[in-house]
Amino acid sequence: MSKFTRWIIVDDTSSDINYLGGSWFSDVGSFDSVGSYGMNYLRTLHGTRSNANFTFDFTGQFLILFT
Length: 67
Prior knowledge:
The chain is an all-beta fold. The protein has one domain (1-67). The protein is built from no helices and four strands. The chain has strands at 17-20, 24-28, 44-48, 53-56.
């Protein structure tokens, strides 16, 4: 087991993310001036107003998800 950590950032528009069920929508830029931390990564967001799921397969020990 390696003692080194490798961080990988995956944008919500990645084809590795499968949005399932529910009614997903995408947004580019309309939240750029909202909040205190600046623009969203690559200015993109995905959201839903109902119950929905997504999958993201990866190999590793853990995942950090920012919502």
